[in-house]
Design goal:
It is a single chain. The protein is mainly β. It is 10% helix and 29% strand. The protein has four helices and 16 strands. It has helices at 15-18, 129-132, 153-159, 219-228, and strands spanning 31-32, 37-39, 48-49, 58-63, 68-71, 77-78, 85-94, 106-107, 110-111, 114-122, 139-148, 171-175, 190-195, 206-211, 215-217, 257-259. The strands form two sheets. Strands 2, 3, 4, 5, 6, 7, 10, 11, 12, 13, 14, 15 and 16 form a 13-stranded mixed β-sheet that branches. It has a three-stranded mixed β-sheet with strand order 1-8-9, with no helix packed on it. The protein is globular, with a radius of gyration of 17 Å. The structure holds the ligand NS(=O)(=O)c1c(F)c(F)c(S(=O)(=O)CCO)c(N[C@H]2CCCc3ccccc32)c1F and zinc ion (ZN). Residues 91, 93, 117, 198 line the site of zinc ion. Zinc ion binds next to strand 7.
């Protein structure tokens, strides 16, 4: 991947020097501040298709130096939006062992331990994610807030392989599992707004849906995620831990933040 980081000389305060959109409008993530929310009765429950992958399906789990990412089956999609959005990959953002606060979106400035993003592209209009990634109607990302609490069995389908991708550009094949189990129970309660990729090149191309209800993972599971990975590659003499890989919240400006739920 490119040479940007979350901190330091190539950190997020410098992204716009090399990636102009990062300093532009419609940036993500944002804070969901109560008095900016507007209930929209037309927001329908999110419906996903084919998220229950067979264990015979092989997925690629990788460390791309910025996150842990899992490739997804092109059979997976969101069917409840105006266009069909086909799944491409999922990845996480998290804090660190000493500070379990690494979500990108925040709720009244409360930052959760981590955040899961399931990235989809508009397959009605574009042949693949590379052509969709810089189009205003190109992407739809499902965001799930993650807090430390009960053990999460679904999360183990990823965590149990994490020591195979400790270093940048390492990849392993993992069996498919029910990706729906990584989402909260209720897909009818969510925040909705127009935003961007939260990493360079920060294209303003994302229809964001962030579910109201967090999922939980245990403290042990969180520590495993927060301490297992490095953003440097295996042969680097100075290993760089991969953590705090979240972008700070961005100005909402005149954007509407819609919610599918009351109170
Ligand atoms: N938070 S976020 O905005 O959802 C988000 C990330 F934070 C994130 F790290 C990634 S990345 O892992 O690809 C590393 C940097 O692009 C992505 N990739 C997306 C958009 C870029 C092109 C592409 C191509 C194939 C599959 C996924 C993607 C990303 F969308
Ligand atoms: Zn993300």
């Amino acid at each position: 991947g490119a040479k940007w980081t979350y901190d330091g000389p190539q950190g997020q305060d410098h992204w716009s020097e090399r990636y102009p959109y990062c300093g532009g409008a419609l940036q993500s993530p944002i804070d969901f501040k109560s008095d900016l929310l507007r209930f929209d009765p037309t927001l329908r429950p999110i419906e996903v298709q084919n998220y229950n992958l067979s264990p015979n399906e092989q997925l690629t789990l990788g460390n791309n130096g910025h996150s842990v990412q899992l490739s997804l089956s092109p059979m997976m999609s969101i069917s409840s939006l105006h266009n069909q959005y086909t799944a491409a990959q999922l990845h996480f953002h998290w804090g660190s062992a000493s500070r379990p606060a690494g979500s990108e979106h925040t709720v009244n400035n409360k930052q959760y331990a981590a955040e899961l993003h399931v990235v989809h592209y508009n397959s009605d209009k574009y042949p693949n994610i590379s052509t969709a990634v810089d189009k205003s109607d190109g992407l739809a990302v499902l965001g799930v807030l993650v807090e430390v609490g009960m053990f999460n069995p679904a999360f183990e389908h990823i965590l149990k392989f994490i020591n195979g991708i400790k270093y940048r550009d390492q990849k392993v094949k993992v069996p498919g599992f029910n990706i729906r189990a990584l989402l909260p129970t209720r897909l009818d309660e969510y925040y909705r707004y127009d935003g961007s990729l939260t990493t360079p090149p920060c294209y303003p191309s994302v229809l964001w849906t962030v579910f109201r209800n967090p999922i939980t993972i245990s403290r042990k599971q969180f520590l495993s995620l927060a301490t297992a990975l490095y953003s440097s590659n295996a042969q680097d003499s100075a290993p760089m831990p991969l953590n705090n890989n979240y972008r700070k919240t961005q100005p909402v400006d005149s954007r509407l933040i819609l919610v599918s739920f009351k109170e």
